[in-house]
Specification:
By secondary structure, the protein is α/β, with parallel strands linked by helices. The model has no long low-confidence stretch (mean pLDDT about 95). The strands form 5 sheets. Strands 2-10-9-6-5-3-4 form a 7-stranded mixed β-sheet, with helices on both faces. It is built from 12 helices and 16 strands. Bound molecules: pyridoxal-5'-phosphate. Pyridoxal-5'-phosphate binds next to α3 and α4.
């Protein structure tokens, strides 16, 4: 039997490239607290992504929690149920009440029209997600934020290197939060970052991620330990040199799936993203009613063939016990998200995926379609 294929596999740079950086760390004995590699990675990421300010974090979730802290967000925040659970958890960790709003059927991102209807006097911010790296309707969301005086913070965990006509999607809103987890397109094993627009915002974020210290003896806020260490920053620096290759190879897998699945009845690929640059971080398909078996049956069938697809995002965040009793978690108010969560399946996609693997997955799905 063919070897198992997982939904993703990290793209690691040659170990020889990391070796000299490790030796430098061993020589300098600077292990963390904003050392030279941390500084170099922040600068290199600003250049690569085309953004002004970046603050590295130990992971994306701490980035989200700190982003909300840095803007002193309270009360209610409007967000999407169709995301990884960390999006909403970051709100609860700040004592904020999430208000869930349905997604748009094509973008699968927060539907701006419904955002406006969910605003109350307690609303202070909007927390949208660029799901699968496909950009939100950033101009509609910004105009709502401006009209109602709300902050706009993007969970951009999927949106590394994504660009629209004006440049990086990370420039939108007040802050954008990235994740560098092992499953993401750019990884430092664990890691994350906040992209900010001005030096004051970055300064506040930087002291919040270091317990609130502004100098050796001054603590100005109840900060957290969100720091990324030198070892991981070095991994990131080396990794960054290979991101373009990784994205090219992901694009090829995406194309192969689109061609292979085009004529498979009952399987729907999402439309090609309109972004100027896409990162092919996920390959979601929707299993329609006309497909001979349901989504869960297809998921199990693939598993039994050694193909480990994932149902991102099922269950919805609003199905989890700490959210489901909120009025906004009512399924009747979230018909699109509920429908998509029941139909979506993310197929394996990663830079080292072979043509044979892609073809085998297409063949397994096609065989079900015609039986
Ligand atoms: C991965 C992810 C996160 C969390 O990032 P970590 O680095 O794993 O903490 C948050 N939101 C979304 C949408 C994610 O996919």
């Amino acid at each position: 039997m063919a070897s198992p294929v997982y939904v993703t596999q990290p793209f690691l740079p040659p170990l020889e490239e990391l070796q000299p950086l490790l030796e430098e760390i061993w020589r300098s004995r600077r292990l963390t607290n904003g050392g030279p590699f941390h500084e170099r990675l922040e600068r290199a990421l600003c250049d690569y992504l085309g953004v002004k300010h970046i603050s590295l974090f130990a992971n994306g979730t701490l980035g989200l929690v700190t982003a909300l802290q840095s803007l002193r967000i309270t009360g209610e925040v409007i967000t999407t149920p169709f995301s990884f659970v960390a999006t909403a958890h970051a709100l609860l960790w700040n004592g904020i009440r999430p208000v869930f709003v349905d997604i748009h059927p094509e973008s699968l991102n927060l539907d701006p029209e419904q955002v406006e209807a969910a605003i109350t006097p307690l609303t202070t911010a909007i927390l949208p997600v660029h799901v699968y790296g496909r950009p939100c309707d950033t101009s509609a969301l910004q105009s709502i934020a401006d009209r109602y005086g709300l902050r706009l913070i993007y969970d951009a965990a999927h949106a590394f290197a994504v660009e629209d006509e004006g440049g990086s999607v990370l420039r939108h809103g007040d802050l954008s939060v990235l994740s560098f987890h092992a499953t993401k397109v750019f990884t430092t094993f664990e890691g994350g970052a906040i992209v900010s627009r001005d030096p004051q915002a970055k300064r506040r974020i930087d002291f919040l991620k270091n317990f609130g210290f502004t100098d050796e003896v001054t603590v100005v806020a109840p900060g957290i330990n969100g720091k990324l260490n030198e070892l991981q920053a070095a991994v990131g620096l080396v990794q960054l040199g290979h991101v373009d290759t990784a994205l090219e190879r992901r694009a090829a897998v995406d194309e192969a799936y689109r061609c292979g699945l085009e004529d498979v009845g009952g399987i729907r690929c999402l439309g090609r993203p309109k972004s100027r640059r896409h990162n092919y971080s996920y390959f979601p398909i929707l299993v329609d009613a006309e497909f001979p078996i349901g989504r869960d049956a297809l998921y199990e069938h693939l598993r039994s063939s050694g193909i480990f697809a994932r149902r991102y995002f099922y269950p919805l965040i609003t199905d989890f016990p700490m959210y489901r009793s909120l009025p906004s978690a009512d399924k009747a108010r979230l018909p699109v998200a509920a429908q998509v969560a029941s139909q979506v399946l993310c197929l394996p996609i990663y830079p080292d995926m072979s043509e044979e693997e892609t073809s085998r997955i297409v063949a397994v799905i096609s065989a079900v379609a015609v039986r």
